[in-house]
Specification:
Two copies of one chain form a homodimer.
Chain A (H helix, E strand, L loop, with lengths): L4 E8 L2 E8 L2 E5 L1 E3 L12 H6 L5 E4 H6 L3 H6 L3 H5 L5 E4 L2 H7 L1 E5 L4 E4 L6 E4 L1 H11 L3 E3 L11 H21 L7 E6 L5 H14 L3 E4 L8 H11 L9 E3 L5 H8 L5 E3 L2 H7 L2 E4 L2 E4 L19 H5 L2 H9 L3 H27 L3 H24 L3
Parallel strand pairs in A: 4-14, 5-6, 6-10, 10-11, 11-12, 12-13, 13-14
Antiparallel strand pairs in A: 1-2, 2-3, 7-8, 8-9, 15-16
Chain lengths: 382, 382
């Protein structure tokens, strides 16, 4: 195997059921990747993470180059050994984090210079260095360096950043030496402009990558805009390569994006929400800080079979969250990740069985019903 | 079985190998109880806690009466179900926490009135109410309310508090209705004064309890003083009842106390130290925040078989601790609790084999050697 492998197992409308082959194992798609920014999915041991059903995790070039340093991770045997995760790892290139976290960044044709958000130290990231770092980390899937612009921005700015991202993608590909089971993905940019997205996609496809990501979404644009840009852009990407929607999203967003041909996702939502008291359930999100749960012995999600729902009740999680106990974050993160993985498994099953459209409709209706029931209870004073 | 059962399995010098029978299972002694103050051993799921080898955990009347409330825990099915811990639970009476945490406390013959450290709400705790709360929680072992005085204090003050604790113990016993597998322990007070400790012990033994605790240690007195008071007091307690040294201590303290006839311990040290970057090892404690670990792939303790030591290295834990990652606290807590349980298992084996004295000497020598080696490395500039 040269690079990574990807095979389509089934199609249902635009939704795709696939299989990604990497140096560290196989990933069934559509797949959700938990975010392990600093080489840790916050609060989760790797055993617990595997228990949720996660098969691939995401780590971040920006965070790891600052601390503990890519050379150090390589000397320690690579990221898989370092964080005790035997499965596939995708590393983001750091482009988004340079823009959102660091200070005094300076973007030139060559790359981006910035100061660390940790200690102000000066760093430089070029497309070549971003590839080098990801290879040192041992990523199964590396991402090309991209320039992410905030939303909204004038079209000229978005076009300039997209074209720079395209030239960086070419340099990234030139710097990347393909080895078995390791691949490089290009990142489509272009904001909410369908013509810019098309130009970006076409350019990347001509350059040729193991997979194609859609970046620069979930930055404040309308949900409908994201979905219509996705709908227009996904068909421009090769059918035989995986498509990855970066940083998205809520459960309903994943279902909508799968319907438009997306295969891979990452998002901090299940983990970050877990640390702020929120549980995802089949009936929508619950805020466990809320006093309504204080005497409720039921599990977070009555139709969930995860270890958290089998062992602990809402009243207990409410107690932990209110008391600021670490275990509250741990249990909610664990359950939320399990929920996301269960959802993706249902999605995969529905595509394989040719009933994805029905699944997506039922999923949306179930959440609307639950939302209406909650609103009614709220009006009734509960 | 009325109350709890206790049987001595072996003796070696003053060290005792025993078996405690409770409503929720058997505990081999000497035993270390992890501290789950607010119905959670911080950062540990109950499955992880059981994995460390812990068989009994401690929870706290003071914390749980304030939040979420004993009546609420009872309505939710009791503490075992609430915190998803199927094994035995010992609850402290709250006497120590009222003194150390609450504001505006007012001790009278009747009991203690105080304000919550959480929200300033006014509470009262009498010996009878402390028993009632612990019964509502469903504790396998309840403790009598005691008055704890800070150290040092004039002998008159210590004597007054000890005698009040004795009268409260009588009232506690009168209020406690023994049920199978549930017991009540009295608490010996008297500070560093052997005669007061003897008076307290004799009074409690005449009153009669399922077990006897030694409270008011590890409050700032010299280690040698604690050991000599233990040595004088333990023989005054019935040979056929368990003896519990409250709030102690470091690994070496446990070994020294077992040598003086103690059967049970609790201490926040393995959990609290885990949250501040410290690992207990067979060669003494390590501070994982220290830069010396930054490139060290070795496990926390090279002779430990816990899941943390099997999967993760010092460099990774150092990275987590420096980055303020939750998983750093979780992994260190897990390992430290495993270390304490392993130590107690070795202690039990040594007593059963009649080689406890040799074990204790080797244990002390091993730590002294490791300490000398560390000092030498420090002098050498490492």
């Amino acid at each position: 195997m040269k690079g990574i492998g990807f095979a389509l197992v089934a199609k249902d409308g635009c939704a795709r059921r696939g299989r990604l082959e990497t140096a560290h194992g196989t990933v069934e798609t559509p797949a959700f990747m938990p975010v392990g920014t600093a080489a840790t999915v916050k609060g989760m041991t790797s055993e617990a993470l595997a228990d949720t059903g996660a098969r691939i995790v995401l780590a971040n070039t920006y965070h790891l180059m600052l601390r503990p340093g890519a050379e150090r991770v390589r000397a320690l045997g690579g990221l898989h050994r370092f964080m005790n995760w035997p499965g596939p790892i995708l590393t983001d290139s750091g482009g988004f984090q340079v823009m959102s976290l660091s200070a005094l960044r300076d973007v030139t044709e060559s790359g981006v210079a910035f100061r660390s958000h940790i200690d102000g130290a000066r760093f430089e990231l070029t497309p070549e260095r971003a590839v080098e770092i990801q290879v040192m980390l041992g990523a199964d899937i590396a991402m090309t360096l991209d320039e992410c612009v905030p939303h909204p921005r004038p079209k000229d700015d978005v076009a300039r950043a997209m074209r720079l991202t395209g030239r960086w993608a070419e340099r990234s590909k030139a710097a990347f030496v393909a080895t078995p089971g390791h691949g490089l993905f290009g990142i489509v940019q272009g904001g909410s402009f369908e013509d810019l997205r098309a130009e970006s996609a076409n350019h990347l496809v001509r350059t040729g990558f193991d997979g194609y990501a859609l970046g620069g979404f979930a930055v404040g644009e309308e949900k409908a805009v994201m979905l219509s840009v996705l709908e227009a852009t996904a068909p421009l990407l090769p059918a035989d390569a995986p498509r990855y929607l970066m940083g998205v999203g809520k459960p309903e967003d994943l279902v909508e994006a799968v319907a438009r041909g997306i295969d891979m996702f990452d998002c901090v939502l299940p983990t970050r929400s877990g640390r702020t008291g929120q549980a995802f359930t089949r009936e929508g999100a619950l805020n466990l800080r809320n006093a309504v749960h204080v005497d409720d012995p039921r599990p977070l999600d009555e139709s969930c079979a995860c270890p958290v729902c089998r062992g602990y009740g809402r009243a207990y999680v409410n107690h932990l969250v209110r008391a600021g106990e670490i275990l509250g974050s741990v249990l909610l993160t664990w359950h939320n990740l399990h929920y996301y993985q269960d959802l993706m498994e249902e999605v995969r099953g529905a595509i394989a069985d040719g009933r994805f459209q029905a699944f997506a409709s039922e999923f949306a209706a179930g959440r609307a019903d639950a939302g209406a029931a909650r609103a009614a209870r709220a009006r009734g004073g509960r």
